[in-house]
Amino acid sequence: MLCPQRPLHRMLVPLAWLLWAGLVQLAGGAMGPVSTCAAADWLQWRGPEGNNHAPADAEAPLRWDLERSENVVWKTAIPGRGHSSPIVVGDHIFLTTAVAEDETQRLIKCSRSDGRMVDNWIIHRGTLPERIHSNNSFASPSPASDGQNIYVSFHTDDAIVVTSLNLEGKQNWQRKVAAFRPSQFQFGYGASPILVDGLLVVAAEYDGPESCLAALDTQTGRDVWRVARPSNLNFATPIAATIGGQPMVLISGADMINAYDPVTGKELWGVDTATEAICGTVVWDDRRVITSGGNPRAGTWCILGDGSSNSVQWENNVQCYEQSLLTIPNYLFGVADTGVAYCWRTMDGKQMWRTRLFGGGISASPLLVDGRIYVAAEDGTVFVFQASQDRFELKAENKTGDSLFATPVPVDDRLLIRTGVGHGDQRQEYLISVGLR
């Protein structure tokens, strides 16, 4: 696979980030990155490290134009609708979708090199939820892969059902994780399955008796462990982290932030904070865990990540409800529901800067590539700004369709973006690859 030519100029990023990412080269006092070609897979939600960082040697285009096909490498029409992000496994891309006309939930397989749709497998038919939130879809959880199999999770037939398929679409097993019949709010489901130490961890949290966090054996689909979660409608995806040498699975919601042992499911610690409903995924640094939400109480909360304190280290009233936050060493970035971008110091929550990006409406999470942060707004605009704590520096705005809910994914010095073009009955979803042509 050819490596696209690298641009002559690479934007400066904070020194702490450069040192941490291992990109610093000293040559006559100048700093520059190692020039290697990135070809890493992106196997699950938030990528290989769970932090939505592209590999350290990856790049992505600064500008593109979908209408004029400028820096658009390929564009593939996707049937139906979904808010899941794609994953990249070897030579192929996998993403889920739902077609309301025939009431199907599907897994799509596309070529990594040219975007050609290779296969389109129906996983469920005729069992779509009766009601969901207008900002949700019937295919919102992203798939996960261990490189040999694909794992997909759907809210279907009033349950959370996980299916394992090999890379050619043959079903290995299918498992109902839990009933899912929310009573107070029929908003649907959004948590992605994640792979942790050979287990598939699935959140099925709702205001009912089977609300749980479960870890399934990837070979059989059977429970390895299962912990009860509060009877409370929650949408957060769990995530694997290591803080202070301790591996853990983190999740927030139900007025708590919790850490579980990934092998046994034993609760390592829990802190009473945050709010009832969380959609975003917890983020962390080497000492702290941070989450944000907005129902019924809006805010962003930071706690210590070793369980040594049950108190909040700092908090503010900024609401990042559906979208997750993003950390780099010592700093935290977020784009609020109001369309305002922030940078905070993780040590104490000090606001480093804030600026308005757009008028509001965001579901996708910020992505870090080559020292730049990519933020996709619901109106289809992708903003690019520098990952700097010193000041806000907007690098580009790229109109990319008319509606964008899925988080972009980096691969092969390109970005994969799932977007919708048109409105109402005329809306068509596309998976596009943007990069230097």
From TrEMBL:
InterPro entries found in the cross-reference section: PQQ_rpt_dom (IPR002372), Quinoprotein_ADH-like_sf (IPR011047), WD40/YVTN_repeat-like_dom_sf (IPR015943)
Domain of life of the organism encoding this protein: Bacteria
Domain Pyrrolo-quinoline quinone repeat: start-end pairs: 71-179, 192-328, 331-387
Annotated GO MF terms: protein serine/threonine kinase activity
Keyword Transferase attached: yes
UniProt keywords, alphabetically: Kinase, Serine/threonine-protein kinase, Transferase
Record protein name field: Serine/threonine protein kinase
Organism: Rhodopirellula islandica
